Amino acid sequence: MKKIELEAVKSLKGEINIPGDKSISHRAIMLGSLAQGESHISNFLTGEDCLSTIDCFRKMGVDIHLSDKNVSIKGNGLHSLKKPSSLLYTGNSGTTTRIISGILSGQDFETQLNGDASIMKRPMSRIIKPLKMMNARIESQLNNDCTPLTIRPSNLKSIDYVSKIASAQVKSCILLAGMYAEGKTSVTEPYLSRNHTEIMVNFFGGKIETEGTKSIITPEPILEARDIIIPGDISSAAYFIAAALITPGSEVLIKNVGINPTRDGILTVCKKMGGNIELLNVNTKNGEKTADILVKYSDLRGVTIEGDIIPLLIDELTIIAVIAMFAKGTTIIKDAAELRVKESDRIKTITTNLSKMGANITETDDGMIIEGGSKLYGAETESFNDHRIAMSIAIASLNAKGKTIINNSDCVDISYPGFFEDLKKLSL
Ligand SMILES: O=C(O)C1=C[C@@H](OP(=O)(O)O)[C@@H](O)[C@H](O)C1
Ligand SMILES: C=C(OP(=O)(O)O)C(=O)O
């Protein structure tokens, strides 16, 4: 377990290409494995979570070749997966664990699934319940609604599921199980969550229709191999957007970032706070919108963040808390109780760390209240093995007096290998 020591910087300047989108990288491996023929993926995210997804599909007999950030996958169709000879290990990845469970529910072999200590605490009832409604034989081995899971063969039936939470992992799990069910399966969410599964299934030749917050999949799609270019991950770009906004004299161009409207809540909030953000070279690649993002240091003001925007920035809320410390006035984050069941209890872990650095931040049941304008000091902080916490603290340290230590900082490799090196390259 490594630790890193960081000091304040004068400003951030320059251009950066950030790694590929985590959500899209996972889905490209999953759908490429179930398609007919050889798919090619470029700018694949080689973070540990996406490598866990590759590992699971290799164990089910799929020929996947990874070289630098390029992946080729030889898929053999929807019914081509083979029984793995050992347990499928999903590491730290909630996305892998939940979405793959839907696919596994439709297979004619039994699988066992588990992840690391953090995964073993994350709630799986949200997928177990709807999958059982589809007739899946999925069990939590310790009867605690967590992993390890056992999934046995069964004949799936379609359902129209109304989900209490807006979660793309839950939605994708059910829709992909729906590929193996008789009849159309639908999922309706309270608010729209990220729609990468819908976009990519359609791109591979399958059919998911969307009506408001309802997505409907047609079963037994014939998926055909495709070439996929993965855009940069807006959740990773968020750290550099924040760094440039809060550090005087900064100007950073972040190239080729995915700006899918179900992921761009961070841009909406930063603009509402008064952030100077411009989108350049807006484009679309394999159904996903992209742009270069130009960010300049800005005078910011506090805002309230709540309701239907929360799923559009769920992974960015810890870095938004950091931005809020540099805004005039109060920022209130509500309706974000989901943060408590991520890699760590992110409401607690970000509040604990930023408080140590001198922030005026208060934990609430479903969010945080942050008073901007406190003077920040370097402190010894903990990542709690949560990549987003480590990266958020790193950005806070750029404007704190003295040295900040982040213990267990190597967890950034989950979603952003090379994060600290990239940060150094932009720092003056
Ligand atoms: O589907 C996905 O790729 C993801 C969905 C979100 O989780 P939930 O579905 O639990 O909200 C997000 O937090 C996670 O990082 C990735
Ligand atoms: C919550 C996250 O990922 P996952 O749920 O896939 O572990 C994340 O990357 O912030």
Automatic annotation (TrEMBL):
| Domain of life of the native organism | Bacteria
Which UniProt keyword terms apply here? Amino-acid biosynthesis, Aromatic amino acid biosynthesis, Cytoplasm, Transferase
For this record, the Gene Ontology CC terms, alphabetical, are: cytoplasm
Q: Where is the Enolpyruvate transferase domain?
A: 7-423
Compartments where located: Cytoplasm
Record gene name = aroA
Looking up PANTHER family in the UniProt record yields: AROM/DEHYDROQUINATE SYNTHASE (PTHR21090), PENTAFUNCTIONAL AROM POLYPEPTIDE (PTHR21090:SF5)
Which family does the similarity line name?
A: Belongs to the EPSP synthase family.
Q: Which GO terms describe its biological process?
A: amino acid biosynthetic process; aromatic amino acid family biosynthetic process; chorismate biosynthetic process
Q: Give the binding site residues for phosphoenolpyruvate.
A: 22, 94, 122, 169, 346, 388
Subunit composition?
Monomer.
Name the pathway it acts in: Metabolic intermediate biosynthesis; chorismate biosynthesis; chorismate from D-erythrose 4-phosphate and phosphoenolpyruvate: step 6/7
EC number(s) for this protein? 2.5.1.19
Q: What is this protein called?
A: 3-phosphoshikimate 1-carboxyvinyltransferase
